[in-house]
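Hi R.,

Here's the chain you asked about this morning:
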Amino acid sequence: MSQDTPSPAVYLHRLLDLLSADAPAEEFGAIAAEARVGGVDERDLAEIEGATRTVLRMRGVLRQHRRREAELAALFDTASDLAGLRDLDAVLQSIVRRARTLLGTATAYLTLPDAAAGDTYMRVTDGSVSALFQGLRLGLGDGLGGLVAQNAKPYVTPDYRTDHRFRHTRTIDAGVLDEGLVAILGVPLLLGSGNGGGGEVIGVLFAADRTPRAFSPDEVALLCSLAAHAAIAIDTAEAITETQSALAELAAANKVIQEHAAAMQRAAEAHDRLTDLVLRGGDVSDVAAAVGGLLGGPVTLHDPEGRPLTAVGPAGTAFAGGAAVADAVEDSRAAGRTVRHDGRWTCAVLAGQEVLGGLVLHGRPDLDDADKRLFERAGVVTALLLLQRRSIAEAENRIRGELITDLLHAPDRDPAGLAERGRRLGFDLDRPHLLLAAETDAASRQRLAAAGMRYRGGGESISAEHAGAVVVLLTDDGTPPGDAARAAAAQLTQLAGAPVTVAAAGPAAGPQALAAAHAEAARCLRALRVLGRTGGACAADLGFLGVLLGDEKDAEGFVTSVLGPLLRYDDRRGTALVRTLESYFGCGGSLTRAKDALHVHVNTVVQRLDRIQTLLGPDWNSPERALELQIALRLHRLAGS
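And the predicted structure, written out as tokens:
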């Protein structure tokens, strides 16, 4: 070796520098080549080449240690993620990403089985660019992944497309081709065993490259370790999910138990409260108020036709009834339960199949089963109270009916005794009353008798059957007799379910006057029957027949009701319309004879008759009106003379 030739120590130092810098292997080989060119003797050159081989071995060991250190760090980080497991997808994504990073592959992915479909599907991918590949589903035994899942063993291939160990399918090959994968390593996710196999396969973890590659045993072992962590993560997540589900079911069951207990307690309190009301003599209005307080909304009671019986809500507001309520009550009766109708809850109040009325709950958009049962229980209690009230009313009405019978048969026998009996029954015969006589066909007579007891209810009226008709004694409230008769006919027709005719008389006070009023009502009722009329009327409504039938014979009132417009017109204008009408009828409707009798021109007669038609109406000359007008004219003339 010449004096200018570097010593072998220089080359050895350079080898150590390259080792510390983790330089590529080809740079280490360049040192020996440089020494040969530099004229180093054979013995030193052999030493440098030996040192190069030693350094390269050391470089390999150091790189293997660094890789193992990185792998251990990754496994430690994965274990830390599992310890704080919050989101399964995030943990699995982290495992797949670390597999791709540690193995240096283009992509990594994880598949899980679908028990319902009987295959596996892509759960997580990292580095994938193909939507077709990301949506792949693998049947058991299909492809590399299917074989891993079937045999619970790792499989590796440097070139999947040319490897015939696997069952290739058109769908899998199309996805692999679209992703551009060549080398694939797949390891099973096992539960209940180590990495050696024999446990339950719950998925497959893959690492893949887009160029041919041979995966080392260390890389297979690393991926198996990551797969074991993934299996733990999945199993832990499923256990947590099952625990949470069980806790949720327990919470739901506990809530149901608490709600049931609360409902039972509420039902017991409601039962005690309603029972206490009944025992203390409470009425249906008290039951409605109590139930309304329990259910958090005003409750009203309606009769079978929908008319409100307890009609007061918050701040005295009255609730309307009518056909809509009656329809809802019928729906509830048919269904045998509470129904919702027009934003209100309705429960039929029944005695067997007979509808006694309906309870209506306002202001509650929803009603649970417990509240419905409470509402329906209130309907049963209300039915009992209504039946009790009906029985009492029927008993009282029988006693009152006996009073009416004695009153109509012999009012002069003991007037003071009759008045005293009435006062004991809460009915003052010395006060003015209207007397109604009602009748219907023979088939409906019994229903009319029951309807008479229900008419206007309470202490406002009493009724009894007398001489084939139902007689109702009604406290006078200022309603004209004809209007009272028509209102009674309409309501009794509805209650009896058949046409009812009602005649009214009065007001009258005292036993004798009431008996006389009944005689007048009976005559009016006979007249209505002869005329074939239904509905209601009084003697005054029958025109001249009323004058003939009425006891007071109010001729002046009849004349005024018939000729009033003409009398007032003549009085104001000094005309002779009444005289003209009398002459016209007296001449048999002849205009010529009438103008001679009146000593006026025939056109004047025509003009006066036109004015009469304007005042009396176009039917003034009809037979019925003409008869009334002629009787009134005769009475007017007699009164004047």
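The CA atoms of residues 259 and 397 lie 48 Å apart.

Let me know if you need anything else.
M.
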